[in-house]
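Incident review: delayed structure delivery

Summary: a single-chain prediction request sat in the queue longer than the usual turnaround. Root cause was a stuck worker, restarted by the on-call engineer. No data loss occurred. The affected request and its eventual output are reproduced below so the record is complete for anyone auditing the incident later.

Affected input:
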Amino acid sequence: MEIFVVPHSHYDAVWIFDEEEYFNLNKLIIKKALELAEKNREFTFLLEQTHLLEKIKKEEPKLYEKIKKFVREGRMEIAGGEYLMPDLYLPQEETLIRSILIGRKFLEKEFGIKPKVMWQADSFGLPAQFPQICRKFGYKYIAFRRGGDRKKPSEFRWKSLGGDEVIAHFMPFGYRAGLIPEKWEENIRVMKRLSACNKILFPCGSGTTLPDEELPELVKRWNLGHKEKMEFSLPSRFFKSIEKCRLEGRKGEMFSARYKELEVFPATASSRIWIKMALRRIERKILGLEKLISLLIISGKAKAKRKYKSLLDRLWKDVIFLSLHDVITGTCPDEIFEKIRKRSESVEMATEKVIKEIIENLGKRGEEHFVIFNPLSFPVREWVEVELKFSKKKLRAIGKVISGNKKQEVELLEEERGKDGYLKKAKIGFIAELPPLTFKEYRISGEGKEIRRRITNRKFGIEILDGCRIKIYKDGKVICEGNEMVIEEEEGSLYRHSPSLPKILKSETGKGLRYGKFLCRDFKIRETEFRIIGSAILEYYALGWPYRGKIKERQVLKNKLLEIEKKVILYKNLPRIDFRVRIKNRHPGIRLRVKFCFREGKKFLSDTQFGWLERKKGIYPCLRWAGIEGKSYALALINFGTPEYEYDGRNVYLTLLRSVSKLSDGEEAPLIPTPDALELRDYEYLYSIYLTEEFNPAIIQQAFIFNHKPFVFSGYRNVPRLPSFEISPGNLILSALKLSEDGKFIIARICEYFGKKCIARVRFPEKIKFSGFVDLNEEKLEEKRKVKVKAGELEFPVNPFEILTLRFKP
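Output delivered after worker restart:
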């Protein structure tokens, strides 16, 4: 038995302390580690994230040179090497990739190294495609703390959905296994039983904890009294020692919440819900901006490539900071989140500003014109809304929009007129048909008459019920009933949901405790040419009297704690139901969810980064959608920044907010009051249902459309139609189009999301030349794949759930 002792420190950029406090604490930790290494030749140390190294280089150059020296000597290892350790479930795909990419490029430039060990000390679970991400970056091994199972060997070969494999080690006692010497005997006994090959990875450290000065002496004493020998080591040495061992294979996500000290905390998917929605908005904008800049470079309209590259690097670092495992999960004190809120607003405004500047440089002003940019690599039919302003007296009505020779009727949503009756402001809506990844220009016209038609759908029937609840029919039978608000008591923390009552407080349909009461007012349904819109206002009162006996009607309602404005929107020729919910929350200590009840269908499916998987009953973070597959239908519930779902075998719940007053119960973190996390503020939520007769790639496309909606620029004309990328079939999604890290190439990243082998067809601008497939580092060329290259078109095979990165030369 060999015991590989790995002294280390887990770095939190922010958590209980702020960024500067953590930086100063970690400087002390590293200085102490280097001091021990200078006194003891055998002592080793592990560092994780490059954000810390970047700050040390800038502010402590002498300390930085010492670190470089010990890395060169092989006595200090930088494992993982991400810029910052993100939560692996809540950010979208490219945010995870950029954190690793930025970190690895820093290490290659500064240290001349490419880490082989992925180190996930504190992420709240690992998604099913993470082994493929790791392999395509060049990692061979992964060590992780949360989500494993102590009943299985702690070492195994972990396969992604796409089949890529890494050697994995689950830390049975987390990264603190060797932190307390008094527990060494007990911990090693358990780890020995779990070891797959008689070797133990024994991490000694924690966050903000100085290395134990006595550790070298303690290791010597252990070796004098035990057969199992300890040695100071690094994770890479441990993994090399088990490479030839016979290890079992596992596939799928690492999301077990069985062990309290190693939990994945699924409730963090709904803590401080505003940061989740903010990140989703920012990801949409920065990915759209990046694609727009890439198209400008291809077309020769963007000369300042270095300027754009530098700008995007800065913006991405802020996005990665927001995706940090203690930030996007909402698990910091209020004073930290005051700064996080300002940071998120700043990066969102900066991204919007650059997009606007690009449009202003490309086009000309025209009050009766607008352009739409589709950021997706496939044609999109989507409802868009356009706000217009008029300084001149020209229009009394807007009846149509015109693009080229095609005219379309529009719906006038809002208007403001002057005393003379001319329009000063207007908001219109219509279903736009947009080409992939380029602009489409429109101008408005006063022509047209209002046409009223009832929306029909041959495959599904949809009924809007009182309060904007819905029923969905298939072949005359109800398959789903839902959009029902449910209030539950919440006595948990930012980490855990904990109800003190076995029953719900109240649901819209009256279930729950006797005191509270939902009142529905202003419920109405109206029809337009394109849509049927149901709207209602719900009010929840803490007391409705009388509250005992047989009650037909409550005569007195007291203490209004919630006001909920609900809208349900049915579209003509769009098989989607959209929901908009505005909430004024004055109710502390609740979990507010939307319930959908299914009459049939037992498969619960949900997406993850670069794929999807089937899950059992439970609470999960589902990135963009989760759904039920029945015998004759598939229904996907799509979210925009509200990723916590629960499936109980019959019902699917989407959590809108959790109101909690403390960081922790004192187990995961100090018991710190968090009054800001009570969420006593106003919110707006968007979610949607997509209906189809079978589970197919259209579900995935609709989830991307809902999360990456077209960009609308009103008041502009003559914007050039940029060269575009189009990718088919529909199970392939372009996750990124970007300038390469070295600035010499254009990178396009695609993934097969459905799990079906196919032949990819990529139409690309003729101004660029395909120069091969590369890894996620954008370096190593792949030689084996058969590719047909025509003028402006590629054909090549893609395996199920495969991530591919294509390189083009401008």
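Verification: Residues 449-457 have pLDDT under 50 and may be disordered.
Action items: add queue-age alerting; document worker restart procedure.
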